[in-house]
Amino acid sequence: MSSLLTFVVALSLTLMSGLRGWHRAKSKSNLHSRPIYHGLNHGLWVALPMLAISSLWLISDSMIIKPSVLSELTQNSKVLLKDTDFRYLEITQIANGLLLTHTDDANTLQAVQSYLQTKENTDTFILTMLLVSGLLGFRGVNRRFKESTPAREQVERIVKIVLAASSAVAVLTTAGIVMALLFETLRFFQQVPFTDFLFGTHWSPQMAIRADQAGSSGAFGAIPLFVGTLLIASIAMLIAVPVGLYSAIYLAEYAQPKLRAYAKPALEILAGIPTVVYGFFAALTVAPMIVDICRAAGLSASSESALAAGLVMGIMIIPFVSSLSEDVISAVPQSLRDGSLAMGATKAETIRKVVLPSALPGIVSALLLAFSRAIGETMIVVMAAGLAANMTANPLESVTTITAQIVTILVGDQSFDSPKTLSAFALGLTLFCFTLLLNILALRVVRKYREQYA
Amino acid sequence: MPNNNASASNNMNESTRASIPSLQTTRKSATNSTQTIVRADNVNVFYGNTQALHDVSIDIQEQQITALIGPSGCGKSTFLRCINRMNDVIDECKITGQITLNKEDIYAPSIDVVSLRRKVGMVFQKPNPFPKSIFDNIAYGPRIHGIAEDKDDLEEIVVNSLNKAGLFSEVKDRLHNSALGLSGGQQQRLCIARAIAINPEVLLMDEPCSALDPIATNHVEDLMWELKENYTIIIVTHSMQQAARVSQRTGFFHMGSLVEVGQTEQIFQNPVDKRTHDYITGRFG
């Protein structure tokens, strides 16, 4: 309740300050900046200090309230150090009325009281600070107001900082995810040797958690997963590269503009179909079809096969290949085509010997992007390729991939210190490194391509 | 704007006049043994509903340089592109009338456009080397037409073409480097070398020097002067000095019509039509 009130107060303070700046500036002549910039400047000088202070709320719990409550608690009773987190959680839940079990423990009740007290004090303190900072900003910017105040420069500087901060969020989040992956992976490698993971040929992550449980001891050789991933991705590329490339050539070089205007969006709709839909298309339509065809041909195919997943995944990435390649082919300057045609080359010769070689770097990077997409694809594999970690090159058998294994490992109840769970992070990191390499490669190729027409 | 243009052309025109006498002293006009190689007869070109050329008729003489001049949008480039049927690429372009090459109608159904373009080469306004090596650029035409018998033969053709284009000494150490590393002027001479590698009868040049600096322009003009011993050259140019310097015959286009065509000296010194006179004296625009 109080937080909503605070927000309203802060917002109106900001608006007041902004309007005041705008009004003051409007009545003056000889202004350095236009009145709107003065208004923005006045508003920002109030809003930003308050925003900075309010971020204290994020850290107040762990920095102020928790240490104070716990120090009191440990003075009054003996609490094992490793239980403090749990006790603190219990206290906050009782305080917020979330824990329904009744407690009579005097120490706990006292701690709850002290928690509520400290929290209230902290909140009041931050709230006061907030208002004071807002008012100070209001007063400060008002006093410094002059016609010559470079309000435009100040506002634009702040805008630049806000933009930089926004991009920092993306970068820092990526860094955070990588760090999280990395630390869990290191924990995994403390339990399972690095070489076993990278070069082992047997994958069977189920292990007994309790002594009386039946289960294998767990094996974490990831080679079968790598093989399965590459097998499915290769089948997908085998479908997507020729079909995608040929359709790109047709759309860019031969199709009438009218046809292209309809055909290209239609092709891109393929990219908009959710992968889970592709997944049951693969599992319920394509896989049984493959089994039937193979039976007719005297072969035996598993009902969940790499071929089914690969075929459907290939269809899924066709729009990537064709749309990106079409852009690249269309970007080849008409003057090169004219030059070739004027030499007496036919249209096909021109495409084969001039247009495609010129567009090759862009096409290669499109293919690499499609490939990394195929490697990261999960749903189709989970539904259509099976979960058995077979190490095989036979597309009719069922295989599994890195992503599919991560899903099966992390679905359901987990204990977060078993090698089985941690192996998901190691797999995730491996996948991340692999797609990162592919993307870097693609970027390099694109950069080389850019230089060519510069 | 129009005034500015007019004064700029005026300045140009004075230097044009100055250059004509020197042309006569340094470059003796070539043989008079004229034989028509390309003949256009009442050519009309339509882009959709707009008519770009009106009844153009012209005879192009063998082993001469014919310059086509005129203000922007007058149809001179359109006409040039009719001669090797590059306008075929444009869907809405319709052509009536007749153009013959060695008395053969080039728009007749029996004519294969590929073999026509093998006989009528073209150099474009902007140098357009393929993103391949210098060698592969020159070898492109001979390869697609199967001209070279073997590797040595191909190499000879490449070296000969580069020599004729006056480029060989500059690039002989880097034949297998990318052609995009050459300067603009070198790239344009490479494109000329590429065009003559298949030994065409007629060479069309569409403002070949408009993207080049004066030194590179000079190179290309010298080259044209040498090439006319073996090839018929038709050049579209915005520069009247260039037309006066290199051509034996000049045609003046205006508003889609061929106003006047004749010996270059006559066109520049004694034009028959008032519009030609106005244009070369800079009263247009």
Structural commentary:
By secondary structure, chain A is mostly helical. Chain A folds into two domains: 2-146, no CATH class; 219-453, Orthogonal Bundle (MetI-like fold), CATH 1.10.3720.10. Helix content of chain A is 76%, strand content 1%. Chain A has a two-stranded antiparallel sheet with strand order 1-2. Chain B is α/β, with parallel strands linked by helices and 285 residues long. Chain B has a single domain (2-280), classed as P-loop containing nucleotide triphosphate hydrolases (Rossmann fold, 3-Layer(aba) Sandwich). Chain B has eleven helices and ten strands. Chain B has helices at residues 2-26, 76-83, 113-119, 134-144, 151-164, 168-171, 184-196, 214-227, 240-246, 264-269, 274-280; strands at residues 36-47, 50-61, 65-69, 93-101, 104-105, 120-123, 202-206, 232-236, 249-254, 257-263. In chain B, the strands form two sheets. In chain B, strands 6-7-8-3-9-10 form a six-stranded mixed beta sheet, sandwiched between helices. Chain B has a four-stranded antiparallel beta sheet with strand order 2-1-4-5, with helices on one face. In chain B, strand 1 (36-47) and strand 2 form a beta hairpin. The longest helix of chain B is centred in the first third of the chain and has 25 residues, at 2-26. Mean pLDDT of chain B is 85; it is low at 1-31. Chain A binds chain B through residues 333, 335-346, 349, 353-354, 357-358, 452, and chain B through 84, 86, 89, 114-118, 121-122, 124, 126, 128-132, 140-141, 144-145, 180, 191, 194-195, 198.
